């Protein structure tokens, strides 16, 4: 069950982080947002990223083997990277209609999934 909680927390944290890192690129289309300076945008993104940490830190604590979780540190990191790519890809395709998913993106993602496989191999 700790594995499921860890992955759900990592997914949630990545949704917030993707929004913090890339959401402002779309938010600029909002009337009130277009007049903000870079410092204000950084502070808004930082505020969103705070929620990312509220899920990321518990995910790592619950999931880490030395805390009684099922994953090694290397496994946690690679799981997080694959989740990041999935969340980022979904966000990009849903929010930024000008982006397209091409074969080379899928090939790169397949390499990361292979990395997960090799890190879990005994």
UniProtKB/TrEMBL annotation:
Bilayer-spanning residue ranges: 7-24, 36-55, 76-96, 102-120
Q: Which UniProt keywords apply?
A: Membrane, Transmembrane, Transmembrane helix
Q: Which domain of life is it from?
A: Bacteria
The protein here is known as DMT family protein
> Which source organism does the UniProt entry give?
Imperialibacter roseus
Taxon lineage = Bacteria, Pseudomonadati, Bacteroidota, Cytophagia, Cytophagales
